[in-house]
Design goal:
The structure holds 2 protein chains of 2 kinds. Chain A is mostly helical. Chain A has a single domain, classed as Formate dehydrogenase/DMSO reductase domain (Formate dehydrogenase/DMSO reductase fold, Up-down Bundle). Helix content of chain A is 68%, strand content 2%. By secondary structure, chain B is an alpha+beta fold. Chain B has 2 domains: 197 residues, 2-Layer Sandwich (Alpha-Beta Plaits); 27 residues, no CATH class. In chain B, the strands form 5 sheets. A 3-stranded mixed sheet of chain B has the order 10-1-11, covered by helices on one side. Chain B has a two-stranded antiparallel sheet with strand order 2-3. The longest helix of chain B has 13 residues. Classes of the chains: A mainly alpha, B alpha+beta. The interface between A and B is large, with 59 and 67 residues. Strand 1 of chain A pairs antiparallel with strand 4 of chain B.
Chain lengths: 315, 249
């Protein structure tokens, strides 16, 4: 599948934004962080900027961005529509919760209620993003039970790194924020590894012979293509550069996206706080590069069934 | 609405005879010609006279080599929307632009509400939907919905453009929901099949398999007047040799 940069940017940035949004809300609700107005302001500002920037970037790949509002209508059947509805719905409780935090209405039961609703909405939104891919039967590497949880876990892990960095900047960092990041990163990494193992082990069930129905006469080989240069279907679904370097890129994304951030989060704990700011920044930057790579691979490695009509033997 | 109809009154579709198709591309060009002025207008091309020409076409004909040796054959394989009974391309659409008609089962895209997110093309295993880069919306086979009900056309022209254009009669159009229709009988008689039935989209269009290859008796070596001589052949000799070969086929 062609890795469209707008979609890669959207899923990673908005994922991290929703992660930060819900973890900051959770920390506030559980009194793990001081309910300082400016901590809240900066934290929620960054979260909303990432989410809104991501959502806007996702409209760049649309043929008609001005009609994007129509995408809220088909939530009964479409995960993309559900994602849109959930994303917009999340703004209301989380926006009011952020406002309440800033203005100090943090004792009111409505504020607490809005906080929990906002966390729920954020998780649902990211889950819907994952389900857009996980519901497509045509792409074997996407139609897997690990895909939607992976989107949620990676969103939470990257959000935890951002929350930790925020707390470091405000001088409020404590052991739990490092431990949260380490645990979420480890969980996301293990799920990603399980996903790769499962995706590689799964046998390819569709063949060119079955796609054309001509397998009964022998092996089917593409002879004359229907067009002289790649058409939309080949440009969008026939992307395969990723597969050649997949191994290297997988390792790099694991190291940058998970291993280095985990080590960087553990260092301040082991050295009782030496270079906390440096380690936290390194973790966030490394994770950003690694997760962008992971998301790029998620598209580039995915093989669409339609490639069977264009010369692939199995999918 | 992207919810699928429970059932459709008719199942209009195509039956494509792979035994007859010669890969002449007449259906492809005829489809493009009609649809660039019809429901899907415009069907744009990009860089048409440059180094990388491509564009939106609703019907493509592939050529496959199948088997090898004496059993080997070339199969020309037209591919377009199969107007599935339970397609995901309709249900994934976030705007309701993609829909399946209750009255005849035709799957259409409303070009006025499509946002060009391309998700339907990802959901289709048959590559039936193509994005129009200039128009910014998805294009797909309409089964020539603007021909088949068009009272301004001669009755014989009220069929899809590809079927009308096919010079060999490899394309048939009709109601596959009516077991007594000509197309349904054709499917029964010739063992018509679905593409990728295991994906569960229940395509309406059917493909008729190529017939088994008939064994052709080996040709007897042709005796020519010049054989056995010095190897020189006159123009007249060559003509008679050629005529003999042609007539003894």
């Amino acid at each position: 599948m062609h890795p469209a940069y707008s979609v890669i940017l959207f899923t990673t940035a908005s994922g991290a934004g929703y992660g930060l949004l819900s973890l900051l809300s959770l920390a506030g609700l559980l009194n793990l962080v001081p309910l300082d107005p400016w901590l809240g302001f900066v934290g929620f500002f960054v979260a909303f900027a990432l989410i809104t920037g991501g959502l806007l970037s996702s409209t760049f790949h649309l043929g008609h961005p001005e009609r994007a509002w129509r995408a809220f209508s088909q939530w009964r059947t479409s995960w993309l529509s559900r994602e849109g509805v959930a994303a917009v719905a999340t703004y209301a409780p989380t926006g009011l919760f952020a406002l309440g935090w800033f203005l100090g209405w943090t004792e009111h039961w409505i504020w607490i209620f809005l906080g929990w609703v906002g966390i729920g909405c954020s998780v649902v939104t990211v889950y819907c993003t994952g389900m857009i891919y996980a519901s497509l039967k045509t792409v074997r590497q996407w139609y897997m039970p690990q895909v939607a949880p992976l989107y949620v876990l990676i969103a939470a892990a990257t959000g935890a790194l951002l929350l930790n960095l925020l707390l470091v900047v405000f001088g409020e960092a404590s052991a739990w924020s490092f431990w949260t990041a380490i645990c979420l990163l480890a969980l996301a990494m293990l799920t990603k590894l399980a996903y790769w193992i499962a995706a590689d082990a799964e046998s390819k069930t569709h063949t060119a012979g079955r796609a054309t129905g001509l397998g009964r006469f022998g092996d089917v080989r593409a002879f004359e293509p229907p067009h002289s240069t790649p058409n939309f279907v080949m440009r969008e679904m026939g992307y395969r550069v990723g597969r050649k370097h997949a191994r290297t890129l997988r390792t790099l994304s694991l190291v940058l996206g998970f291993a280095i951030p985990i080590v960087a989060m553990a260092m301040p704990l082991l050295t009782s706080g030496v270079g906390t700011g440096l380690w936290s920044t390194l973790a966030a930057i490394s994770a950003a590069a690694g997760i962008l790579m992971e998301r790029w691979l998620f598209f580039a490695e995915a093989q669409h069934v339609v490639t069977l009509f264009y010369g692939e033997q199995e999918a | 609405m992207t919810s699928l109809p429970r059932k459709t009154d008719k199942k209009l579709g195509l039956v494509i005879d792979l035994d007859i198709c010669v890969g002449c591309q007449a259906c492809v060009t005829s489809c493009k010609e009609w649809n660039t002025g019809g429901y899907s207008a415009p069907l744009t091309d990009q860089d048409p006279y440059g180094a990388d020409p491509h564009g939106a076409w609703l019907n493509r004909v592939h050529g496959y080599e199948v088997g090898s040796g004496e059993e080997g054959r070339t199969v020309h394989f037209p591919r377009s929307c199969l107007h599935c009974e339970t397609p995901d391309c309709v249900t994934v659409c976030p705007t309701g632009a993609s829909y399946k008609r209750e009255e005849d089962g035709i799957v259409l895209v409303n070009p006025d509400t499509c946002i060009g997110c391309k998700l339907c093309s990802w959901a289709c295993p048959y590559g039936a939907r193509e994005y129009d880069y200039d128009d910014g919306v998805m294009k797909k086979c309409t089964l020539c919905v603007d021909r088949i009900y068009n009272d301004n056309l001669e009755p014989r022209d009220r069929i899809p453009a590809c079927v009308r254009a096919c010079p060999t009669g490899a394309r048939h159009y009709g109601d596959l929901g009516d077991p007594e229709s000509d197309v349904s009988q054709l499917v029964r008689d010739r063992g018509g099949y679905d593409l990728l039935p295991e994906m569960g989209y229940r395509p309406v269009n059917k493909y008729l398999p190529p017939r088994e290859a008939q064994s052709v008796p080996a040709e007897a070596p042709v005796e020519t007047q010049s054989s056995g001589k010095s190897g020189k052949t006159s123009a007249a000799d060559r003509f008679f040799t050629w005529a003999d070969q042609v007539l003894s086929r």
